[in-house]
Amino acid sequence: MISALPLAASILTSGLSVATSGLVAMAVSWSIISSGADVTWAGVASFAIQLPVAAGLALGGLLSDRLGPRRVLLGSDALMFLAVAAAALAASGALGAAWVVALLSLGNFLGASGNVAQDSRVPEMARLAGLPLERANGLRDVAFNVGTAAGPALGVALVAAGGLPLALWGVSAALGVVLLLDAAFFPRFAARRRAGEEAKVIAGFAGFTADRVLLSVVVLGIGLIAVFASLDEIVAPSLAVAGGLRDSQLTLFLALNGAAALVSGLAYTAMGHRLRPHPVLVGGVSSAAAGFLALAALPPAAAFVAAPLLIGLGVGPLSPLVMTTLQRRVPAAHRGAVLGAFMASILFVQPFAALGAAPLVSAVGVGWVTWGLALLAAGAVIAAVTLPALRELDQTVPKAAPR
User: Fold this and answer.
1) Eight-state DSSP code of residue 232
2) Dist CA 78 CA 323 (whole Å)
3) 198 CB neighbour count, 10 Å cutoff
4) Rounded-to-integer distance, Cα 61 and Cα 340, Å
5) Which of 23, 75, 170, 345 is most buried, taking the most CB atoms under 10 A from its CB?
6) Which residues, including other chains, have CB under 8 Å from residue 320's CB and lie 6 or more apart?
7) Measured in whole angstroms, how far is the alpha carbon of residue 58 from the centre of its chain?
8) Do the beta carbons of residue 58 and residue 363 sit within 8 Å?
9) Which PROSITE patterns match (predicted)?
10) Terminal CA-to-CA distance of the chain, rounded, Å?
C-alpha cells in the first residue's frame, strides 16, 4: 500500500496542476470580457500566458536529466507558487494588467518544467505501485480530464465572487498544496546510465526525431492540436451564436465533451494494457473526426450533442497511449529531455492555432472554418491508418505485459 503512495500523490498533484492552469486561463479571460473590454485583449492575454509552456517543457526535460527529477519538480513547484502569489498581489494592488499577465506567463513556464520532470518517472512509480504502465498513465489522464473540466468552471465562479485577485489567491493556495504533496511523496530516483545509451538516444529534440515512431506521433499530434486548440474557445462559441443557441447549450457541449473523454479514458485505464496501441489510435482519431464532421454537417442543436460525445470518446485514450509509448521507447537516463522536447513540439502550435482561429472565423465564417477542421481531422485519420511507422506502435508493447 505504501509503495502506491508516490503514484497516487502524482495523480493528485497532476490533476491539481491542470485544474489551476485552466482556472488561471479562464479567470483572466473572463475578467477581461466581463469588464466590457475588447475581446481581442482576452485572446492576446491567453496567448501570452500559454506560449511559454512549450519552452518550459523543453527546458524542464533537459534539467530533469541533469539535476534529477525531484530537484526540478520541487524547484518548479516553489517558483510557480511564488510567481502566482506575486500575480495575485499585483492584481490586488495598483499594478497594471500587463504585470499580472507577465507574472502568470512566468508561472506557466516554471510549472511546465516541473510537469515534465514528474512525467519522466511515471514508469518507475507504476512499478512501485505494481500497476501496468497503461493503467498508471490512464489514471493520470483521468485526473487530467477532471482538472480540465473543473478548473475553468471554478475560475468563472471565483471571478464572479471576488474578482481576479480572489481567483489567483485560490490558485496560489492550491499550488502550495501541490508543493507539499510533491515534497512528501515524490521519490528520490537514483541516476541510471548504461553504456551505449548516449549513442542510441540523443537528449532533446534529436531524441525523438531519430525515432521514426515518435516522429510520426509528433506530426500527427501537431495536426490534431491544430484542430482541437480552437474548438472550445473560438469555434464552439461562434457556432452557438450563429445558430441562435442558448448559453446552456454551449455549457452542455463542454460538459458532454469532458464527460465522454473521462469515460473513454477510464475504459483505457481498465483495458489499455490488453489492447494493441495502433488500433486504439486509429479508433480514437476516427471518432474525433466523425465528431467534427457532425459539427459541420448537422443542425446546431443536434450537432452540439452528437459532436462532443464523438470527439470526447475519441480523444480520451490518446494522451495516455502516446505517453506510454514514449516512456517505453526512451531510456530513463534521457527520458526527461526527450519527453520535454516531444511535448513542446506538439503544444507549441496550440496558442498560435487558437489565436489564428478568431480572425479566420471573422473573414470566412464559422461554417467554413468548421468544415476545414473536419477535413483536417479526416486527414489525420488517413495518416493514422497509412503511416508505416505508426503501425510499429504495437511493437512497443512488452510480450509479457503485467495484468
Assistant:
1) I
2) 26
3) 13
4) 4
5) 23
6) 134, 137, 138, 140, 141, 265, 268, 269, 272
7) 15
8) no
9) MFS
10) 18
Cα dihedral 115, 117, 120, 125 in deg (nearest 10): -90
- What is the rounded CA–CA span in Å between residue 181 and residue 393? 34
Alpha-carbon distance 377 to 80, whole Å?
Answer: 35
Q: How far is CA 291 from CA 286, 302, 305, 307, 311, in A?
A: 9, 12, 10, 4, 5
pTM exceeds 0.85, yes or no: no
Q: How far is CA 214 from CA 98, 292, 322, in A?
A: 38, 26, 9
Cell representation of residue 217:
506521433
3-class SS at 285?
helix
Cα–Cα dist 84/9, whole Å: 22
Q: Distance between CA 142 and CA 11 in Å, rounded?
A: 9
Q: Cα Rg for the chain, rounded, in angstroms?
A: 21
Residue with cell 509528433: 218
The answer to whether 120 and 137 are in contact (CB under 8 A) is no
Question: In Å, what is the CA distance from 18 to each residue of 15, 40, 91?
Answer: 5, 25, 22
Residue 388 in contact with residue 285, Cβ under 8 Å? no
* The C-alpha cell that represents 7 in the structure block: 503514484
Q: Which amino acid is residue 189, in one-letter code?
A: F
Q: Which three cell numbers stand for residue 207?
A: 531524441
* Residues 6+ positions from 193 with CB-CB distance below 8 Å: 333
Measured CA to CA, the distance from residue 293 to residue 371 in angstroms comes to 7
Phi first, then psi: give them for residue 108, nearest 5 degrees: -65, -40
What does each C-alpha distance from 61 to 16, 111, 251 come to in angstroms? Answer: 21, 12, 36
Per-residue pLDDT tens listing for the chain (403 residues)? 567 888 888 889 988 988 888 788 878 877 776 676 665 676 677 778 888 887 788 787 778 877 888 888 999 999 999 999 999 998 887 667 788 888 999 988 888 888 888 887 888 888 888 888 888 888 888 888 788 777 777 877 788 788 888 989 999 999 999 999 999 988 876 555 444 444 333 445 555 566 777 778 777 877 777 777 677 666 777 777 777 777 677 667 777 887 888 888 888 888 877 888 889 889 999 999 999 999 999 988 898 899 989 998 988 888 888 878 777 777 766 677 777 777 777 777 777 776 777 677 778 888 888 898 899 889 989 988 988 888 877 775 554 444 3
